[in-house]
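2.7 Reproducibility. Because tokenized structures are sensitive to small changes in the input, we list the exact sequence used for Acidic fibroblast growth factor intracellular-binding protein-like, including any N-terminal residues retained from the expression construct. No trimming or masking was applied before prediction.
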Amino acid sequence: KNQNNSAAMLPEVAAIVENFTDIDENVYDLWLRGLSVVEAVTELLKTPEVQEWGAIIPPHTDLTKIVAMDTNDHYRIFYELEKVLMSPQKLSHHCTHQISVQHQKILIERFYALDDCVAREIVGKKLSGRNRKDLDDVADKTGVLLRSCRRQFDNIKRVFKQVEETSGSLVTAIQSHFLLTDQLSRKYAAIVFLLLNRFETSKRKLNYVTFEDLYNCAFAIIDHWSNPVTATTAATTCAAAISGSVANGIGGAAATVSSNKQNTDDTGIDRDFLIQLRDLKCLMEREKEHKSLTLCELRKLGGCSVAEAEATFKQLSRPLCTIAVALHTQKELRDLFVDLVERVVDPVRTLKWNTMQLSTFLSAFTLAGALLLDSCSSLRAAWENYMKVISICVIQLHHF
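Resulting structure tokens (single pass, no recycling of outputs):
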């Protein structure tokens, strides 16, 4: 009876048990950088937050030991989550660790984050086991710890393997599979595109070229060469691109490069377009006319020495046209950036042209060529489409 009375007097309690795993973002960043627990503790002890906390804990408490234990616990969790992060879509269904949506996004985005200097070194390499073992050189050159270099190499390889046979937008495919932001997905898309098409980026001549340069060049090619372009579209977009280049210099020509195409295959370059470029040899046969029209356009545009352009026209015109005519071959396409630097950018540097002067010349050169090809709309469109990308790349690689 007494037991029944006692039970009746007990209050009803609604209990909710949550198992959300706490994610310390500072410790996570140290883990991603590749620091050991000991190294991470040393870094954490220098932070204002830990020092403030250390000032209020009881005397004789070993602050270093407490921080080390906490850091070790976090590292254990991160290593457990690492396998799940290789397939980010599984993170929301992970049973061992329940993680808030906000922290899921942080974990994924930071895990797949790329250092531009590391990405630049990896772009020119095959994603082989041998090159993974040789990442010590990348670590020494970039100052990024080896563990972090390996993580970034593995992530690039994982993304590459996932989307290499994708047809359609690389950015969309990467976002879909790896739940990354648009900005980070675009970085991976540029890397995948350059690797798939085997562009040469590791020659000594290109040592000065940054990942940002390659990124902008890659998306210029993706946007304009990956699919057939009609004469109407080419003429319209070319005029806008040339106008933007003249008005804004490199900021307008390269910084605004973006891929907005829908339902297109970004993994390769349109073969028919490259073959059509062979017919541009007619411009080489009409070099005097091309020169005359270019100088005429320069006088209208201003901003570039007509005398200098006249004296060096052949030196710049020949390689620009020769590259176009041979671009249908695998070797010439692969060596595009090397050829542009050796045969166009280097001669421009001797002229000491700034970005505006170079942009103006390329615009006049493009317009003059279009006038000569006016009787053949398809070839004119191919020329404008070719020069649109070449202008962006040359300006980007100029580094005035």
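The chain has 23 helices and no strands.
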